[in-house]
Design a protein that fits this description.
It is a single chain. This protein is of the alpha/beta class and 248 residues long. The chain has one domain: Vaccinia Virus protein VP39 (Rossmann fold, 3-Layer(aba) Sandwich). The chain is built from nine helices and ten strands. The chain has helices at 2-19, 24-38, 54-63, 76-89, 148-154, 171-176, 179-183, 196-200, 205-214, and strands at residues 44-48, 68-72, 94-97, 100-101, 107-112, 139-146, 162-165, 190-194, 217-221, 241-247.
Length: 248
């Protein structure tokens, strides 16, 4: 009986821990604070899934003219907006790439949503109706992908000071395409997203953990005190979160 009571208490504690994780607004706040504290002039930053450039502009401000921001956006329509924003802002240190980043270099299929929901564009076929969301892609776009290992070799980039990955579920594929960089500790800090989209893409948090741990990286939630991969069981329980990976 005591054993059953003990196990019930542990289960309750785990449930409470999951339910008390940060809200998306709190996650975003902690993300911005982390970048402001971490970034320094002259750093090399990669913005994978740049969207229209909100974070690319923030990064470029703090790395200054001596640094670089390599921004990647797959969707043609969103990339055009990104290009316009960066041109108006006059930030020549932002290097624009109309490319997806993945584990292979080939043509991929991107599910593109309406302009209002462009942040949901994803390689995954998302069953949003299962989450009570009645929104579907408006079209599918053929996009070119590149691996970070090949991109850095081609452009003679030895180290990435900050690698930010927000690609609606395909974060694991981006990591796999940077295996050489991670194995050789050439990524000094990586910030990546986790949530229901991770499962929609067919990925699991255990795979991400295993990859990063095998490369000698430790993982922490960007919100202090929150667990890694909260709600990690499935897409319905997964909580939106951001994680930091740094070399041990």
């Amino acid at each position: 009986m005591n054993y059953l009571i003990s196990q019930a208490k542990k289960l309750k504690q785990r449930i409470n821990k999951i339910s008390q994780v940060a809200t998306p607004i709190e996650v975003e706040k902690n993300e911005q604070i982390f970048y402001i504290r971490y970034l320094q002039e002259g750093m090399i930053v990669f913005d994978i899934g740049a969207n229209i450039g909100e974070l690319s502009l923030l990064f470029s401000r703090f790395v200054g003219s001596s640094g670089q921001v390599h921004a990647f956006e797959a969707s043609q329509l969103t990339f055009d907006k990104l290009s316009t924003v960066c041109k108006i802002a006059n930030r020549p240190q932002i290097i624009l790439n109309h490319l997806a980043v993945a584990d292979q270099e080939k043509i991929l299929k991107l599910n593109v949503y309406s302009e209002e929901y462009s942040g949901w564009n994803s390689l995954a076929h998302r069953p949003l109706e299962n989450y009570g969301i009645n929104i579907k892609p408006v079209y599918i776009e053929d996009i070119h992908s590149i691996t970070l290992d090949n991109y850095c070799e081609t452009n003679k980039i030895e180290f990435i000071d900050l690698l930010k990955i927000d690609v609606e579920g395909a974060e694991y594929q981006v990591l796999l395409g940077a295996k050489y960089l991670f194995e050789n500790k050439r990524v000094r800090c990586c910030v990546f997203e986790f949530g229901g989209t991770t499962f929609d893409m067919g990925n699991r948090p255990e795979e991400i953990e295993s990859f990063l741990n095998s490369c000698g990286y430790r993982i922490s939630n960007i919100v202090k005190g929150n667990p890694n991969f909260p709600g990690r069981v499935n897409a319905l329980s997964a909580k939106f979160s951001l994680h930091i990976a740094k070399p041990n």
